[in-house]
Structure formats: structure tokens, C-alpha cells
Design a protein that fits this description.
Low-confidence stretches of chain B: none
Low-confidence stretches of chain A: none
Mean pLDDT of chain A: 94
Mean pLDDT of chain B: 95
Oligomer: heterodimer
Largest sheet of chain B: 6 strands, mixed
Shape of chain B: globular
Structural class of chain A: mainly beta
Radius of gyration of chain B: 13 Å
Strand content of chain A: over 45%
Number of strands of chain B: 11
Distance between the termini of chain A: 37 Å
Strand content of chain B: over 45%
Structural class of chain B: mainly beta
Number of helices of chain A: 0
Number of helices of chain B: 0
Distance between the termini of chain B: 41 Å
Radius of gyration of chain A: 13 Å
Order of helices and strands of chain B: EEEEEEEEEEE
Shape of chain A: globular
């Protein structure tokens, strides 16, 4: 089975711009979670989508949003970028039914905001 | 508040054993994961504990004590390729939301 894929892998943007990141889960997985990873804060949960609905949300401002499509692919959008948004953005997929299911991570998108 | 604590860094020699501790105080608990993350790569699953006790998987073992809010990951017969960050993550709700510790960087020396 192919793993979780994320595009693009690297991105450079300037302050005030917006960005859209994409995540394709493992085939058959209906849950996609997004995380932000920075050296100072570690891995922080952004939100989770399951069957096209946001099921869970972390403590991030409204500039961070996402959606999920009927094929379970998910996108994450960050508007009005700030320097502090520079991070590795990881998505993870799982079947979605139970909390103990392993989350499988993609390689991440490294975003640099100048 | 919610807190997951791990040591920042540990160094050990090849062939040795290292134990990485994780203590947690979270509003909910539905299990604890350990992930390994090599520099520049995605985290990969190592183990999951939801009941008290020890789970052994080859060179890696993980222990959980729910009453003490404590877990450890034991790495035996260390190899150079085990140099990585090890992340402790608690499932904090019934949907499977993960809260991660900051990670422990393990450095294996020859």
C-alpha cells in the first residue's frame, strides 16, 4: 500500500500571503489529522477530518483552516501568513474508527515564511 | 493544563540500553504512543500502550503505569541507526486526538 503523501514538500512564502497544503491518505483511511512541528513547540495538533467533516480541533487561530474531499484527500490553508508560521506541517491518516488506531504520518511540507 | 514531559537528550553507546521516560498529566487518557522520528523524516510508529504493563517488540519495549501517569520506552542493543528523536504521545479524547511531548533526542555513539 502506498503511504501518506504530501505536496508540496517545500514552500517559501512571504508575510501576508496565503498557502494551501495537500495530503493524500493511505488508501481506505478516512481520517486525516494535521500537525505543526517547530523546534520550540514540538508537534502540535491542528485539526482532524473524518468523512469530510472536521471532527476535532486544536488551539490555533482561525487563519488555519482545512477541508476534506470525498476521496479522503485533505487540504490545509493558512491565510495572512506570519513569520511564526514557518514550520514543518505533517499530516497523518488512519482508518478513523477507534482512538487507539495508529496514525501514519506523511513526509511533511516544510514552509518558510519570509 | 496538559503536560507531557520527556528528557531533551540522551546519549548512549552502541550495544547499550537506554530508557526514555515520559510523564503525563492530561485531561483525558485513551492510550499512549511512542513514535521514532529521524531528522528530516516523518514520525514512524513504535508502540501503543493502553493497559498497565510492559509491551515487548523485538529490541524495543514500552511500559505504562496509568496510576502514576508514567511510561517509558526501552531500547536494547542500541545501533547507530537508532539515533533519532523519540516522541511520546497521549491519546487525550475518544476521537484519538494526540498530544505530543517535545521529544527525546537519542544519540548513539560508537
Amino acid at each position: 500500500k502506498a503511504g501518506v503523501t504530501q505536496t508540496p514538500r517545500y514552500l517559501i512564502k512571504t508575510r501576508g500571503q496565503q498557502v494551501t497544503l495537500s495530503c493524500s491518505p493511505i488508501s481506505g483511511h478516512r481520517s486525516v489529522s494535521w500537525y505543526q512541528q517547530t523546534p520550540g513547540q514540538g508537534l502540535q495538533f491542528l485539526f482532524e477530518y473524518f468523512s469530510e467533516t472536521q471532527r476535532n480541533k486544536g488551539n490555533f487561530p482561525g487563519r488555519f483552516s482545512g477541508r476534506q474531499f470525498s476521496n479522503s484527500r485533505s487540504e490545509m490553508n493558512v491565510s495572512t501568513l506570519e513569520l511564526g508560521d514557518s514550520a514543518l506541517y505533517l499530516c497523518a491518516s488512519r482508518s478513523g474508527g477507534a482512538p487507539q488506531e495508529t496514525q501514519y504520518f506523511g513526509p511533511g511540507t516544510r514552509l518558510l515564511v519570509l | 493544563g496538559q503536560n507531557i514531559d520527556q528528557p531533551t537528550e540522551m546519549t548512549a553507546t552502541e550495544g547499550a540500553i537506554v530508557q526514555i521516560n515520559c510523564t503525563y498529566q492530561t485531561s483525558g487518557f485513551n492510550g499512549l504512543f511512542w513514535y521514532q522520528q529521524h531528522a528530516g523524516e516523518a514520525p514512524t510508529f513504535l508502540s501503543y500502550n493502553v493497559l498497565d504493563g510492559l509491551e515487548e517488540k523485538g529490541r524495543f519495549s514500552s511500559f505504562l503505569s496509568r496510576s502514576k501517569g508514567y511510561s517509558y520506552l526501552l531500547l536494547k542493543e542500541l545501533q547507530m541507526k537508532d539515533s533519532a528523536s523519540y516522541l511520546c504521545a497521549v491519546v487525550t479524547d475518544s476521537w484519538g486526538k494526540l498530544q505530543f511531548g517535545a521529544g527525546t533526542q537519542v544519540v548513539v555513539t560508537p
